[in-house]
Amino acid sequence: MSELLDLTAAQAAARIHAGDLERGELWRFYRDRALADDLNAFIWVCDGDDPEAIDSSGPLGGVPIGIKDLFCTAGVPSQAGSKILENYRPPYTATAVERIMNAGAPVLAKTNQDEFAMGSSTENSAYGPTLNPWDRTRVPGGSSGGSAAAVAAGTVPWSIGTDTGGSIRQPAALCGIVGLKPTYGAVSRYGMIAFASSLDQAGPFTRDTTDAALLLQAMAGKDPCDSTSLGLPEPVRLPTATDLTGVRLGVPEELTGEGIEPGVLDAFRETLDLARELGATVETTQLPHAPHGLAAYYLIAPAECSSNLARYDGVRYGFRADGRDLLGMYTETREQGFGAEVKRRVLIGTYALSSGYYDAYYGRAQKVRTLIARDFEQAWERFDFIVSPTAPGVAFELGAKTADPLAMYLNDFCTVPMSLAGLPAISIPNGLSEGLPVGFQIAGPAFSENRILDAAHALEQAIGFDGSAARA
Amino acid sequence: MTDLEPVIGLEIHVQLSTRTKMFCGCALSFGEEPNTHTCPVCLGMPGSLPVVNAKAIHYGLMMGMALECEIAPRSIFHRKNYFYPDLAKGYQISQYDIPLCSGGRLGDVRLHRIHLEEDAAKLVHVGQSGRIHGSDASIVDYNRGGTPLAEIVTEPDLRSAEQARDWLNLLRVTLRQLGVSDVNMEEGSLRCDANVSVRPAGSTELGTKTELKNMNSFRFLMQGINAEVERQKALVAAGEPVVQETLHFDPVSGRLSPLRSKEEAHDYRYFPEPDLVPVAPTDAMLEAARAALPELPAARAERYASEWGLPEDTARLFAYEPDWGDYFERVEGEPRTVANWVTELRARAESPAAVEPAALSKLVSLVEARAVTAGNGRVVLDKLVAEGGDPAEIVEREDLGAMGDSGELAGIVAKVIEDNPDVVERIRGGNAKAMGALVGPVMRETKGKADGGEVNRLIREQLGV
Known about the structure:
A: 2 domains; about 15% strand; globular; B: Arc Repressor Mutant, subunit A; 3 domains; three-stranded antiparallel β-sheet
């Protein structure tokens, strides 16, 4: 049995394709592990048999997958971690999920998340927090904490999540796995329950970069149902690079200085040394507007969410509270249905869009966003990639930051600039600090996924991170 | 005290007659089983996304070109946020600071803008009253939700309710001719709000305006505007200020009641719709829209008046009802005479299809050649509408041919003069109108086959007057 657990998804798929492994066996193995999960990584687990409709001859080889709760999956609970969508079963399936199923991966489970993807610890889920498999007193990061914890714990071989300001990369870092946020537009958002439309992007959680490439290959593509989707200009290749000869890495002062835990910085510097050994050049640089990214992000994302979440009014679906009249029903439904962090952001966003404040807040934040994108544009003239720690610290204890929203928001400090600029970025595990995983972020120009995966693959081979302790 | 003049601007919502909704693939419908034309997108289901209807953009471009607007090279959609059960997403996708079309003109009224948006769903109030107050429950029919709308906003160039009505009618026939909308006020595919203010005649400043809603017929539009103009004039006369507010027109009482004041106005928190990309019409799109433009009523009326010499009202009639205009152009003959006969036909038939253009041409030529009198020509037309056939054959069969110069008519005239000495006396006494009392009996005697002018000439000749 433990032999199955040691296989990456790509290895398992290869065995199934070769006839050396029966897909039902793999399904039952992970189904039983997922049903026995004690991290609260899942909101729903399929307790049935391997769905026969999925064709395992596809590239994903019948290897089961975990899907973040906020992806609509027809007939299966899709609640975005919120009480307001309690028991909501959508009539249709998200494009990204459909593409994954068409490529041969059956959906095993829906994973826990911060409510509507708002949070960095998965503590904002209406269905209880998810625990970090490396230390059960700590959070797995968020908002896609369930997807990250499940892959790290080996209760699913791989999973998908969404990243708005870091919600794939930060939990991947805190759980010691690979998380990739593609270029905005690479993967269709159709059927992804929206948090902030101009930032949300789906991507894979995997044990290694090969699995990430395999999954991205299936997910990415232009979708007529999403006007903002573009797909990728070239097919995703499985990464093969083993060195970084001639690769120019830029290290922004703004993302590698104050506020980063010493242990995280140590691991970061060790990885930079490895990169040099592999042939890369490493140079310090500036992203002058990056420090304003967090402030801009926490206006733009709430503004969009205040509008995106207006549809949860109790009229058509989901949770409804009784009220004396229409207004009473609205306010009671939203008062009882939304959690504190969601309400906070809806309020901030409503305020930022209000007449008289729009220019000072939303308008100004959009200008900062443009400046940050320009910073990156300038960086690409000198560098192939911008690298930084993924998160400023290791996994923190449950409850440590719930009382201080600003401290929680700082978790996104290193990941938000790329989100605002719509750029692809990956987090790979690059060691431990205080016995907990640390992540290394590689960001590149728009649509440079293949190159990012190659660089990450070369580093991954050199780092030799062992995540098996979390799967025990 | 100086006279007060009304200043009126209109905001017109037009449902576009596309096959599908503005942002999803559901078919448009009217009067069908509730909630049967819906999907995750128009129901605002979690995760669904809008996609712009290309045909709606095409229609928008056609309207912009027909109404001489400036087309934006890149227009964007905004979200207009407010809560109401007829709004599935909690926001309406509309256009805000960069509409598809800006400026423009129709007739003597300038346009401010045309933008595209989606219609709301329909609330049905269940219970005895049938209205929101006192109803037992309200249910929502989302069939209409997401129907493409064009909002056309005029500048405040109208000066009376009648002018507003006439201009709205011109807009209606123009849009119908474009084929972009059914423009049916009763079914709600054409809806008109009015902004009304008054000011001293000759002033160039605008007074405080009120917005009038729910005038869903041309009659109600006039009633509403007139009532509001009178109300505002009375306020000004009494030295009281006009308050900016939205007023609701009640068709039953004909009265206006406040809906909300400026202070209560919504803050719609407009912001660019992040789920859509800007609309940037390509040369091909612009060319396709231009190629689809038909001749529009104003231009056609002008052409009929200047090139065909039709009187203004007849020219407008055929221009506004293009079926009749097309028919008119296919009937051969002297244009004004043909126009009279087409008008005669229009009074007798619902559509020009009732009589072949060639048949009417023949009738016109028979009348022009004086082979049939105008009066008997109308009898022939009745037969054509009722039974069809050939005008010449009808004339032959029914013995409706005009009398020739055989002298028979002179004999009949002489006999009538002899039979009516008293009338002759009056005519000789200088009463020219009395001549009619002789013409009538002659016509009766000839079964309408005599030419009226010839009869008159013969009477004068024989009486020597």
